[in-house]
Write a structure and sequence with these properties.
The protein has about 180 residues and is of the alpha+beta class. Helices cover about 50% and strands about 15% of the residues.
């Protein structure tokens, strides 16, 4: 009987840990006001062209909150996983090679409807179809060197954020300007 009692205790302990983890996640999200987050990456051409400050400035001026930022040389493994949905496309190999050719600035931005609004700020994948005032409309000429990546859906954003950032790399902080941005 003691073996059964021990497994019951283990199962109960596991259940308590699970409940606490869920509670901590909900508490963290509520405390940090996590309505929506998106993943943005400044590609190697954007870094080499010294556009990092300008791009960060545009997101800050819009009113979004930066909660994660790092400069890194992305590995081929990370990039292959990031672009896995494009693996059957003829440009996939070139894309992975290009993205691993230099440093990338990976960021997580937070705010109301941030995924959709960030995509509007970025512009179309093809810079020739991007409106002036968008990042690609202002700084890009060719599809193959289009400066920036932004998540295309909330689901993609969650996947990409977890791929590029560990939870402890995302900072929860109080932005004093939020009361001037949100009702």
């Amino acid at each position: 009987m003691s073996g059964g009692s021990g497994s019951f205790k283990s199962a109960a302990a596991a259940m308590i840990c699970l409940v606490l983890a869920v509670f901590a996640s909900v508490f963290h999200s509520a405390r940090c006001g996590v309505a929506e987050r998106t993943f943005i990456a400044i590609k190697p051409d954007g870094v080499q062209r010294h556009l990092v400050g300008e791009i960060v400035r545009r997101f800050e001026r819009k009113g979004f909150k930066l909660v994660g930022l790092k400069l890194l040389q992305a590995s081929e493994e990370l990039l292959k996983e990031h672009y896995i949905a494009l693996q059957d496309r003829p440009f996939y190999g070139r894309l992975v090679k290009y993205m691993s050719s230099g440093p990338v600035v990976a960021m997580v931005w937070q705010g109301l409807d941030v995924v959709r609004m960030a995509r509007a700020m970025i512009g179309e994948t093809n810079p020739a179809e991007s409106r002036p005032g968008t990042i690609r409309g202002d700084f890009c000429i060719e599809v193959g060197k289009n400066v920036i990546h932004g998540s295309d859906s909330v689901e993609s954003a969650q996947k990409e954020i977890s791929l590029w950032f560990r939870p402890e790399e995302l900072t929860c902080w109080e932005d004093a300007s939020e009361r001037w941005i949100y009702e």
